[in-house]
Amino acid sequence: MLASSGASADEQLNGANTAWILTSTALVLFMTIPGLSLFYGGLVRGKNVLSVLMQCFAITCVMSLLWVAVGYSLAFDDQGNGFIGGFGKIFLVGIGEETLAGDIPEIAFALFQMTFAIITPALIVGGFAERMRFSAVIIFSSLWLIVVYAPVCHWVWGGGWLGQLGLMDFAGGTVVHVTAGTAAIVAALVLGNRRGFPEHAMMPHNMGLTIAGAGMLWVGWFGFNGGSALAANGDAAMAMLVTHTSAAAGAFTWMVCEWIRFGKPSALGAVTGMVAGLGTITPASGFVGPAGAMVIGISAGVVCFVATNYLKRTLRIDDSLDVFPVHGVGGILGTLLTAVFASNALGIFSGQEEIQIGSQLGIQALGVAVTLVYTAVVSYGLLKLTEVLVGNRVSDEEEVEGLDISQHNERGYDF
Fold this sequence. Notes:
By secondary structure, the protein is mainly α. It has helices at 15-43, 49-76, 106-128, 134-157, 161-165, 173-191, 207-226, 234-262, 267-281, 290-314, 323-341, 357-389, 396-401, 403-408, and strands at 100-101, 104-105.
């Protein structure tokens, strides 16, 4: 996903492409509110459902303001360098109704990118759910957008060094999923486990909400990946097809894994496998074909299932809503597999690109490693800073009472 900011004089507005990007923007926003909000809200205990909904809603508000003020400029202004954009587009200065990015309005491109900047920090909520102060969530998310998301976005999509090196990330394997997953597990480690974990089961309080949210995520992901083509064309259509294929394969594979391992498939497993399939296909979605997407989805179902169980049962790390083993591991896996299935020399498993698999795999691995390490180090520093400023974790009494009451003086349910 890359659109040049300065359109040449002979470029003209394409109405069909503009309409598709505006539609995709609405779909991606729909992924966060209500999609991710309901998905996460159903997964926590009843005394914390409102807190998760509130965190997703507030992040949407604050990240939107920050993106307009400075985030878009840091990510996409070409007056910067290979590491970070410049300040030439703060508050979207110089971008008017007639300003084009390619053949779409740059304001539409900026708005579309805003929805990515919203959902990425919202995904991190799952790593510290049920135990982080609301004030700390807002401060951490705000700083994280500026010093983690914006630079990595610039590296890959804004003309930065990873994009120049040739990293293939169509819709956010590194920019969204590796960054969010890494930040989530760092937050889980810094804050520590929830009281009672892992000795006591902490089951989702409302799977109905979760499945409804999962359905919204599935639909919204068509805008997430299909919209990243930045045009209403065959690339967008193929991105949508492989996205759906991978999601279906991931969900069914996770169900089969549960069936074999535990004797019964679960609704929780089905929707988690779906999200794993979606996250894993994201970096590859504009480059691979249907057969390759099916392999990617099956791989996501198996690998993310194993990673989730290993993290919780063996390492006993309380990444509350499995952000790292699903999004982080899925983003890593998908980014690496892009180098394989994007190749047009694999028969029925071929993708769309003429690439050398070995050399491209090296570039993909470098992109993953640098993004993971940078995100982990900076996220750790930000969490230490918020600890000094406001304190990260609620008290034991507030955690037992639930964050709905202790942080918002409201209840998600009042029977």
